[in-house]
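Regression test case RT-17, inverse folding.

Input:
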């Protein structure tokens, strides 16, 4: 028998929704169903219920926790030394987040990133950021010493060759001209960013810029227009980064708490398996739901907010298949993972490092040192411990997944300090900081490519799985 995508999705939708067809005419169960308990879903539930007190709003979350990609964790030995397995910081220029943190009276504090004492380890050599570019402190790249300096104008000068006036371009001017800018006769949107950069930079220059950035996905999935939008319209990083004392996850947790206080319902361990879209204005959305052990339930709603990442939306049997799927392909997923190692002390303090980020071209890519920061509040006692946080994306994330045990639902797991993954993170840290650190006591690992629910409880196949069998 041939299994088509439309048959899989439509059949699953019909199966999950059959129980409520008789109730459809009686009126919707909810005014708004919010699907997804991350910061977007928690915010939507809070705002909807706060601004429309009489509305029936309910939030559905697949996992056992509120937070989504914000996941704050702490080791039992140091409960106030909180690390971030997901998002970790924001800028004052990100007004929506900054104003929301202030409105909710959450304690914001500085989050150091790049400082002169931090390390950059590339091609087997490791220097502090203050030393980069000095004649005796050069990395083995075939580029001039001046272009290795943090003050190098290499990138901006190259951008000037593509967009004349780039050095003095304002955001307002760029918005006016961006759609019509051409390079060698082609609109920027028709250039792949990596190809565009390769036309004005040597491969050694490109490799150095990517290695020194700490990210593997730089420009790989972008257009030339995306690249220049980031340059001219990106967030203002002239002011220091901030975080929330006690964990960035406090933001969605507080939003969910406020939503509940305002009267919104919150239903955990409940996954949206199917969604029937109304054909007429006087009809309702039909939501087919599954709990953690596979029991079905269903509700109707006048409106639905899908506060979900692309992968989660693709696993929902939406009937009829509509233009939403065409919009989804514009969202490019980037694999990412984090590992946190607990040490008996913040040994980096002996090296003059009191926080911030160090970068390597090894698979770890970025290290954040926690426990000795000057910005820490009195309520964030480290109890003498230190936590080293590793963050990487794209190809490097695949490397760490091979060293970790199979990821459970949600992708988070605790590991021993002598596990294979922990010891490799530990080894790379020693190379970056040019020291022999004490052995880690414990570790944890977050794989953001893992499914948020156990595979055996999936009600239907994803679109990709169905396509492979078509």
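Golden output:
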């Amino acid at each position: 028998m041939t299994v088509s995508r439309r048959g899989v999705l439509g059949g699953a939708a019909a199966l999950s929704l059959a129980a409520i067809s008789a109730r459809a005419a009686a009126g919707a169960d909810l005014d708004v169903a919010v699907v997804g308990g991350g910061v977007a879903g928690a915010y939507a539930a809070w705002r909807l219920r706060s601004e429309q007190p009489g509305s029936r709003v309910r939030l559905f979350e697949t996992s056992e926790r509120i937070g989504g990609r914000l996941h704050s964790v702490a080791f039992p030995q140091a409960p106030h030394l909180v690390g971030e397995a997901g998002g970790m910081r924001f800028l004052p220029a990100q007004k929506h987040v900054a104003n929301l943190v202030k409105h909710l009276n959450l304690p914001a504090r500085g989050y150091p990133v790049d400082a002169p004492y931090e390390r950059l380890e590339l091609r087997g050599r490791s220097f502090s950021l203050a030393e980069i570019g000095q004649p005796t402190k050069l990395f083995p790249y075939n580029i001039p010493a001046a272009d290795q300096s943090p003050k190098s104008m290499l990138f901006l000068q190259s951008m000037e060759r593509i967009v004349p006036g780039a050095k003095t371009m304002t955001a307002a001017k760029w918005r006016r001209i961006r759609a019509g800018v051409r390079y060698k006769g082609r609109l920027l949107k028709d250039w792949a960013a990596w190809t565009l950069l390769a036309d004005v930079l040597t491969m050694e220059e490109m490799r150095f810029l990517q290695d020194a950035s700490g990210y593997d996905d730089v420009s790989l999935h972008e257009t030339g227009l995306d690249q220049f939008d980031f340059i001219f319209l990106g967030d203002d990083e002239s002011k220091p980064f901030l975080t929330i004392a006690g964990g960035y996850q406090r933001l969605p947790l507080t939003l969910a708490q406020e939503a509940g206080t305002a009267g919104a319902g919150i239903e955990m361990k409940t996954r949206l398996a199917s969604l029937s879209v109304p054909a007429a204005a006087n009809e309702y959305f039909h939501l087919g739901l599954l709990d953690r052990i596979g029991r079905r339930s269903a509700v109707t709603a006048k409106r639905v907010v899908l506060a979900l990442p692309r992968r989660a939306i693709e696993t929902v049997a939406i009937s009829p298949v509509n233009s939403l799927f065409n919009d989804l392909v514009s969202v490019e997923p980037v694999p990412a993972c984090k590992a946190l190692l607990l040490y008996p002390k913040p040994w980096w303090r002996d090296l003059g490092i009191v926080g911030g980020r160090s970068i390597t071209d090894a698979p770890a890519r970025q290290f954040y040192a926690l426990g000795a920061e000057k910005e820490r509040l009195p309520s964030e006692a480290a109890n003498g411990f230190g936590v080293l946080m590793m963050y990487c994306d794209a190809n490097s994330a695949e490397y760490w997944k091979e060293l970790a045990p199979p990821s459970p639902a949600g992708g988070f797991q605790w590991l021993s300090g002598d596990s294979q993954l922990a010891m490799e993170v530990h080894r790379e840290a020693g190379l970056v900081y040019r020291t022999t650190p004490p052995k880690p006591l414990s570790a944890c690992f977050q794989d953001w490519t893992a499914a948020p629910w156990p595979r055996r409880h999936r009600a239907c196949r994803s679109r990709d799985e169905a396509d492979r069998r078509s």
